[in-house]
Design a protein that fits this description.
Distance between the termini: 26 Å
Structural class: mainly alpha
Number of helices: 2
Radius of gyration: 13 Å
Largest sheet: none
Length: 57
């Protein structure tokens, strides 16, 4: 069985990829498209995990 954290991380990564593709299709600047990819797919899961870790203390 896949853990809740893994499912949520996969969802955020999938949303990041979709956001990247949409931003690229709309001719957004490359910095915006990459910013969406990094923020939603990389930073958001880290922030969520850290927030949960601090809630457990």
């Amino acid at each position: 069985m896949v853990s809740r954290d893994t499912r949520e991380t996969a969802l955020l990564v999938a949303l990041a990829v979709v956001g990247f593709v949409v931003a690229s299709a709309l001719d957004a600047p490359d910095a915006v498209a990459w910013g969406i990819l990094v923020a939603v797919g990389g930073v958001a899961p880290l922030v969520r995990d850290e927030w949960r870790r601090r809630q457990d203390v």
